[in-house]
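hiii so um. not sure if this is the right channel but i have a protein structure encoded as tokens and i wanna go backwards to a sequence. like what aa goes where. can anyone help
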């Protein structure tokens, strides 16, 4: 069976886009949680701002990877995937701090 060389980069590009949208939803939920906080709004706002900055960083990484996949012969992911994983882990720490806080 012949493999379609265009199918895998297309699936990977779609996966990066889905992940970026899911990350945006996490930021929106964090904003909602901070907006409904009774106390500690400044700290919650700072965590939400940090999470939003992490989302922007992830958006840049995803865009770089999608651009690389658009090439005729996509190059390996290199440092994009480990950096994206680090950004997601940092966002998870922000989310844990938001959940654990007194707000």
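sure thing!! here u go:
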């Amino acid at each position: 069976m012949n493999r379609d060389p265009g199918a895998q980069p297309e699936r990977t590009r779609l996966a990066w886009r889905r992940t970026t949208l899911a990350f945006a939803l996490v930021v929106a939920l964090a904003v909602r949680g901070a907006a409904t906080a009774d106390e500690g709004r400044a700290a919650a706002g700072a965590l939400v701002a940090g999470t939003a900055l992490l989302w922007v960083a992830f958006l840049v990484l995803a865009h770089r990877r999608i651009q690389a996949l658009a090439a005729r012969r996509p190059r390996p992911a290199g440092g994009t995937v480990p950096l994206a994983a680090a950004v997601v882990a940092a966002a998870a720490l922000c989310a844990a701090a938001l959940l654990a806080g007194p707000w």
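oh and The helical segments are 7-35, 41-69, 80-100.
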